[in-house]
Predict the structure.
Amino acid sequence: MSDDDELPTNYDVIVYGTGMTESIVAAACSRIGKKVLHFDSDDFYGGIWASFNLEALLKIAEDDQEDENYNDIGLYNITSQWYIKKAVPKPPVIETPDEEKTDTNPSVTKTESDSPKNILPEDDIRDEIHYDHVKHRTLWTQDSVRKEYRRFNLDLVPKLLFARGELVDLLITSNIARYAEFRCVNRVLTWLNGMLEPVPCSRADVFATKHVSVVEKRMLMKLLTSLMEYGEKESLEIPDIENKTFLEYLKSKKLTSNLIHYVLYAIAGGTESMSCSAGIKKCKMFLTSLGKYGNTPFLWSMYGCGELPQCFCRLCAVYGGVYCLKRELQGIEMMEDCPKSCRGIRLKSEGKYLKCEYLVMSINKIPVTFYTGEVSEVGISRAIFITNKSILESEKEPLTLLQFPPLEGKKYPVTIIELGPSTFSCPKGLYVLHMTCKETENAKADLIEYAEKLLNLEEIDSVFSEQPKNSSHKKPQVIWSMFFNMKDTSKQEVKMPSPNVFVCTGPDTELDFDNAVQQAKKIFSNISNGVFLPRAPDPDEIVFDGEDAAVGPIFEKDYKKSSESDSHSNLDGEESAVTDLDSSGEKEPLIKSSSSNVSEDSIKNNINENDSKSSKEEDASLKEVGNDVDNMEGVENDMNKMSVQDESSSLEKVVDDITKNDIEHVDKDISETRSNDNIVEK
């Protein structure tokens, strides 16, 4: 029996493709109780949104060179190159006469370091002699890099998350953030006057930078403040904003060319043709995201962006979604009585028929005949570089965003993201550099000039992970590179044969994931009127409280707080100040950065402002109860010191009676609490 025979045949929603948008839709449908089948023709999750190890990318490049018309994930114009040799060349062995082979000085012993296996090329020997104190350097060759192939997580579509962007909000409100880890981008750079310059992102950075004069600092702060308040005050409305470019608006503010460069290219990430409304929107997103998790507005997904589609797939599976890989779609079945409505699909392997009410497909999985109008010719140029050091060295390992303005003769700017080993994108001692821009010719022609500005592209024998300070190569040495193009299908118009079939477009050149989230919300609204990805409880928040309890799980935090409330009321005769959660039992987790990391533990350990306020009130109440207990102990001590024997004996009797009753009452409460704990454990 094949695996297809074991699949159920009836579903509410079938999703074909495991890209970002498709995975969000599948998770949202499964979360509200719909029966979902999520399958893909690939043997991995994510499609073109996935992260690959080094060997996988090398195989993609090799397959493309063998057959230019064959590519599973839609890449073309692929060129990959090694800039170091496969192995360290061995020094030549020079034969010596027999008389010279005899050791004339028996007092000199041959050490292990003199053996041929430890001899390096002449340049490397010189480096080892003068920089022997650098013990952690690694000599990289093709063989040594390929041995570490599993430590690479290389993205075909590298993107950042705005701290207040739509994807971060969705990860928090749905509690899917617990499946992922993030790291803050700790610096933003720009290319100005032929060199790399840091971009002042916050008020402190603006006043600390030496690249902006005092007058420019005041002008910049005034501009940023007005951009933040745009749309909130009528006095800040810009006349004829739709017909004006953002560059014209900046010039009308009488900014210097230095400040215009920072705002237009580094903060807005735009071009001279960017519209004024788009530039203001980008600046507001940049400024509102500042300071939420770090000194920049951006987050990076640890282990690569390919982790994010898998996070939504996990939630879909938790709520009953069925997953199948390596399954291709043979055709779409239409209803006989209603030819324009889809009733199911047929798999290619066994021709099995599966019924569904709705079908969601990736644009890479549909026939080209479904496209309306002309096929989009807009493409994306990409490049991946593996280097031996950062483009701009710093004391701490950098995670860098560089918005490179267009060079002379170029039309579009280039977005550059540099990742170090702490992001688990590469082994220790190496860096990964991603370049992205809109396609004009091909990837290599579009990006090679930018690479030459930042990197050394010469072919050498081998390279250390850390070059000597007096090395002639000041730029990072490229170890391996890959140039490729992909289609930008984000604006492609598609006409499907049925109103209950929806198409998810591919990635665009934008820096964030907002387009994918917006598209997923739109598709979900056509499928259901339910809540889009409501918060999923953590496993430790769900407690089933016996057969006689109310139907449905309760939150453990509610249970604990109610137990504490009963305990305080019984012991002290006062109502506890501990407040329960709201009726829905849902709390908004906060992602908070610690040492530039945003992890699952930090989400769980942070609570919202209401819980913080409630905790403070609880502490104050418990403190008052403690003071009352101390006062009672003082009164009891005073009574024990009374000199009248009769009064003393009567008081002792009263105290004994009260103590005895309290002990019985407490024992009863303890036994009830233990029985409740046993129920919880069961």
User: Anything to note?
Assistant: The longest strand covers residues 353-362. Residues 99-135, 547-626, 628-633, 638-655 have pLDDT under 50 and may be disordered.
